[in-house]
Design goal:
alpha/beta, Adenine-n6-DNA-methyltransferase TaqI, Chain A, domain 2, 3 domains, nine-stranded mixed sheet, 38% helix
């Protein structure tokens, strides 16, 4: 029997990785479609080309298989066709390259942007990030994810020589646009703008990449293989900080020259979420010049865009960092960020508020760390199947996070079967049935606790904990403190998240000695005990001695 040529084989089979790239989904999604019978796996890691074509033409976007599969058909672009159009336009002599860059950005589908972590930076942000940057005739500049070249063109506007400007991107179209823009602006044919994976280049042993300035908006949450993330994490010593934006940060620090300056536009999570802690710890080793909040800068993206600008020069604990919120600059001490739980960069509070936090942590207090038993609410696996909106025999009331208000619980509107073995995840029943426990809303930016004495059950939008007896106060008193206006302010001032995490609650200071004098909680006497005054604008300051 005559063997098939490699070209013939390519027409009949397709690797999972290539299928994922064409379909603009993750490899996990392709594997799920194999499991559900939509695609035919020929051998390990290889699928039938025919089954893939049939699926894309006849099923995706038509059948109700899952939201991701249908979304890719409704929200996609033909990258090959788009590339052809871009290169035709670039060949024209009178092309407006700045406008072409904007057109290309807007032509990319949302699904592609999400998968690649691509969100092109508004010009106003680039100008602001690069302001006050001093350059010489030999200064080198790099944008490791240059897109269509906005940071690079602004660097040239600042006086950098085009031959000293470097850029990398995995998108060949964007690279071609950037090179053309440089030529139109300067007449220089740059060979320093390269279609390549910056992480791979930076990971090479003995690579010679070294730059004075590195400014970029790196890919946010780009979908890459878990093994690849871990490999890069090991090379760049990023610990658990494995988001692509974090990996770009570590790689850039590695190749930044001594006393060079780095500017990164990042998602809000970089500044306050635990998974980015190692990145923040590294940043705190250096001289941080600015933190800037640009608000919700990207259409269709809910997270804020925030920037960090630092110099690769060892920090001094007396350093002050310029913080900017709503275009209003103020200064904060570096040490205040080092002292924060998880090294959180809570630059959204000012120096007066920083003093309040320092003051209350210096007062005698306990924490919930190692002082409580914790449990999650019940995960049914299918609320629509198991939850009824009226009581019937064999069912018990169950409470959601939205049922919990500070020191208040709504009447039950959901009931579940008492056979707890049918649910996906259930904490030990004795925790739900504890004589007294605190239940709290999990998905929330505000603290809301209820002291439960009736052994109620909760769903996973609520959590619970049972304080140890050695806390020195009653569970109701603890609930009162956690529900206080001041504690809510403190929680937002430090963590500023929409989830109430156990680790965050364990970091809060509980001033139990207040109840040595006052048996019943009152906000006014609590603030007086803490020597704190509430200001007219809703924030707090320390009483002057």
């Amino acid at each position: 029997m005559q063997k098939k040529t490699s070209e013939e084989t390519e027409k009949t089979i397709l690797s999972i990785a290539k299928a994922a790239h064409i379909a603009n989904v993750s490899e996990i999604t392709i594997r799920n479609w194999i499991k559900t019978g939509y695609l035919t796996e020929k051998t390990k890691g290889v699928i039938s080309h025919e089954s893939f074509n049939s699926f894309m033409q006849n099923i995706a976007g038509k059948e109700k298989l899952n939201s991701r599969a249908n979304k890719l058909k409704k929200d996609e672009h033909n990258h090959i066709k788009l590339s052809s159009e871009i290169f035709k336009k670039l060949a024209k002599k009178d092309i407006n390259t700045d406008k072409l860059g904007e057109e290309y950005q807007s032509s990319l589908s949302n699904s592609y942007r999400n998968k690649e972590g691509v969100y092109y930076t508004p010009q106003r942000i680039i100008v602001d990030m690069l302001k006050d940057i001093k350059t010489t005739s030999s200064t080198t500049f790099c944008d490791p994810s240059c897109g269509s070249g906005n940071f690079i063109l602004e660097a040239i506007n600042l006086g950098l020589k085009p031959e000293n400007v470097y850029g990398y991107d995995v998108d060949a179209n964007a690279v071609a646009i950037t090179k053309k823009r440089i030529f139109v602006k300067t007449g220089y044919h740059s060979e320093n703008i390269i279609c390549a994976d910056f992480l791979e280049l930076a990971a090479l042993p003995n690579n010679k990449l070294k730059f004075d300035l590195i400014f970029t908006n790196p890919p946010w949450g780009k979908k890459i293989n878990k093994n690849e993330k871990e490999r890069f994490g090991e090379i760049f010593n990023s610990g658990k900080s494995l988001d692509t934006s974090s990996l770009f940060f570590f790689a850039s620090i590695k190749i930044l020259k001594k006393e060079g300056i780095l500017g990164f536009l990042l998602p809000e999570a970089f500044f306050n979420i635990a998974s980015f802690q190692e990145a923040r710890e590294v940043a705190l080793q250096y001289k941080i010049k600015r933190f800037i909040d640009y608000g919700k800068a990207f259409k269709g993206l809910l997270t804020k865009a925030q920037a960090i600008i630092l110099q690769k020069k060892l920090c001094d604990e007396n350093d002050e960092i310029c913080c900017q919120i709503n275009n209003k600059p103020f200064k904060r001490n570096l040490i205040s960020f080092k002292n924060n739980p998880k090294k959180i960069f809570n630059f959204w509070i000012n120096k007066q508020e920083e003093e309040v936090i320092k003051h209350i942590y210096n007062l005698p207090h306990i924490s919930l760390k190692n002082n409580a038993k914790w449990a999650l609410g019940i995960v049914t696996g299918n609320n629509s199947k198991y939850c009824l909106n009226e009581h019937k025999k064999g069912y018990v009331p169950v409470f959601k996070g939205s049922d919990i208000k500070p020191n208040e619980l709504k009447k039950p509107t959901n009931y579940i079967p008492t056979d707890f073995s049918i649910y996906q995840q259930v904490a030990p029943l004795e925790l739900y049935k504890a004589p007294v426990k605190l239940i709290y809303k999990f998905i929330s930016s505000n603290l809301a606790f209820y002291c439960d004495t009736e052994q109620r059950f909760i769903l996973n939008s609520a959590n619970l904990f049972i304080p140890d007896k050695n806390t020195g106060i009653s569970k109701k008193q603890l609930s009162d403190i956690l529900n206080s206006n001041f504690m809510n302010w403190l929680f937002k001032s430090i963590f500023n998240t929409h989830k109430v995490l156990r680790s965050d609650l364990e970091a809060l200071p509980i001033h139990v000695k207040y109840f040595d004098t006052y048996k019943v909680f009152d906000e006014k006497t609590y603030l007086n005990f803490l020597q704190i005054i509430k200001t007219n604008n809703g924030t707090y300051r320390v009483k002057k001695s």
